Model the fold of this input.
Amino acid sequence: MDDLGWQDTSVPFWNETTHFNQRYHTPNMERLAKEGMKFTQAYATSVCSPTRVSLMTGMNAARHRVTNWTLHKNKIQPMESNHGDLDFPMWNVNGITLDTSVKHAVHATSLPVILKKNGYTTIHIGKAHFGAIGTSAANPLNIGFDINIAGHAAGAPGSYYGLDNFGNNGDGSPKNIWSVPGLTEFHGKKINLTEALTRKSITILDSVLKLDKPFFLYMSHYTVHTPLMADDRFIQQYLDVGLDTIEAQYASMIEGMDNSLGNLLDYLEKHNLDDKTAILFMSDNGGLSAVARGGEAHTHNKPLSSGKGSAREGGIREPMIVKWPGVVAPGSTSHDYLIIEDFYPTILSMAGITNYETVQHIDGQNFMPMLKKTGATLNSRILVWHYPNEWGPSGPGIGATSTIRKGDWKLIYYHLDQRFELFNLESDIGETKNLSKNNPDKLVELANDLTNYLISVDAQMPSYKNTVQKVPFPSKAL
Done:
């Protein structure tokens, strides 16, 4: 899912049901949770491309350096080049590469490459956002997928409507960089992009099943990314209960996604594949809240603070469910934490693939013990987020930051003014109380752990324009 927040579902991922859970209608997510394991502390990064590259490479963003969202070849984002106080590094703006010929890109052995080598048919459907325009990874076929439907360099659709040709001209040619490629059989028709992608996925699966091979389907919906456009099949009920137009549009997009999930679950059951298919449901970053939403900004993920683009929990904590019949206990819950790069070694382990080589170092940890409830990592592991970049909007946790979680403690370091925020998530899930002054020992401990990790992966840091000096690592700012 794209931009789906921790609270954007009728499935509660907290210890209580909130008004957001009551607002949204996601019966198929509820169905998946009843049949699988719900993760209450699953993490991605705060924006899209870093998460997607971590998923495809098993690397932490600090190491792979695709730390912001990609689009234009060899160019940092305009909000970075035009920043008043910070000079941002040339991060890997071109995304992923399978060879060393592409500069400013991370050289890696991708997840679909390994699956393909081990007999899997690899299918990409929907949003890609793996590489900049004009680079090989702009086409998922070039990073190991056998089939690509509607994936390209851009991370948002020109339109969700078939009547708008999904942002293309009447002859099917792209209007601009946001035009969704392919899907021409749906142009001019009254159909939502989410439904079109679902129909294509089923058509592709029909053909793939004839091959009598295992398949890996990466179903990557564009929704609920902006532009917020109503899914006409579902919007009326949200208007009827009094939601403003924007929030009703948003809710209808979520239900459109959920309907897609249900269609795929039904397909697996119909073809007697449900008992031998593992399903992993995840979002790429926190729910959008700083801009483009109805109501008060930074409140759409409460009790979590902030949203997409933020190092606060609302920007990085995601709804996650795993169904794996015969392995994962139905209706179970894991309160342990994990992060997006963990999917890489775990998916390969689920596929029984153990003897593989990669050109990159794998940061992710196999969470099979969590799935089987045979082990945990909660108090013995650090998680790190590194964003030496600029997203654009302002708000809590938004800006150039480095962040660490260790047990229940979380430290955010702000590059611009070398400020720290220290939170205990067990007692303060909303990150309302900065404990940095009251807990100097914990501040030093986490700052040192964060610094050591960033140095170990040769992480990039911005520089100050007025002094040309690099922003110091966290422990040097104490």
About this structure: The chain has a mean pLDDT of 97.
